[in-house]
Amino acid sequence: MNAIISFIKGLKAHFWVLAFSGLLLFAKTEATAQNVAASPEYIKALTSEWVGERSADGRPKVSDSILERLKNISIEEAWGVLRNKGYQNQYEGEWQIMLPDEAMTGRVVTAQYMPLRPDMEKQIKDQGVEKEGRSPKGGTNSWPIDILSNGDVYVADSYGKIVDGTLIGDNLGNAIYAKSQRGVIFNGSVRDQEGLSEIEGFNAWTKGQDPSYIQQMMLTSINAPIRVGRATVLPGDIVLAKKYGVIFIPAYLVEELVLTSEVTGLRDEFGHQRLREGKYLAGQIDSEWTDEIKKDFLAWLNNYPGKLPMTKQELDDYLKERNY
């Protein structure tokens, strides 16, 4: 009898251990439920090489002055700097551009869209509305717009869908520009392009446009890594968008990229001028420069006929460390 009682007590103890373990597992699962928007901690981990100011959501906050200087950098120059740093998958081309002669730069906010799956869409809406406080009205395609701030560029991967894949029309376009003073880059489409074109200052790089409404699509994440054609894009990247294509630049490299490209531009300007003057042969300019050419270049810089794109201190520090 004593043995039976001990066995029953053991079963009870085992049951409570299992029950308690189950509650811990459930609590852990609840605590680590996947958010629609990435947490600041996750974004900081993705962009850990950035040293400097960050937005409240964790994204690097590259200065407005660097964003403005970046507009003058060519796609080829930016691509070359990134390739030399080992970043070979940051460019995407073949865009339809609303204002092709105007460059756009800014801090990337990412969004990922996928074909609709009802059970997953329900979970995303429940998570976004009930636990993250996102708007229950309208479609989830407005959620990335709600978090934009001045200087942000809304970048979305909607898997190239054109018909029934239009992420915004002119109403959402107005909301985007009001918040960011920028435009959009979509691996997908927009609707009401005529209305969008009337928003002064708004620009868009898309894969197409269509009069249809968005259907059979769902938002799956905000500020997570996405793919845009050939490029891998992280939240907080800095985008350089021109009529020749789009480059996504890791935030920690953008200042160096701008300065390197600016010096390359000055070097090319000097070389072209000297070739027109017949002072040097093409082979002399295209190869490593002699001390004579270097001295000539420094003298040319000191008498530059316009305003240098960088400060004199930035230029001097750059030239000290490089064999140009």
TrEMBL record:
Record: residues binding substrate: 169-172, 191
Q: Which cofactor does it need?
A: Mg(2+)
Pfam family, any one: RraA-like
Annotated protein name in UniProt: Regulator of RNase E activity RraA
Q: Which UniProt keywords apply?
A: Magnesium, Metal-binding
Which top-level group of life is the source organism from?
Bacteria
Q: Does the keyword Hydrolase apply?
A: no
MF terms from GO for this chain are: metal ion binding
Respond yes or no to whether keyword Coiled coil is given for this record.
Answer: no
* Residues annotated to bind Mg(2+): 192
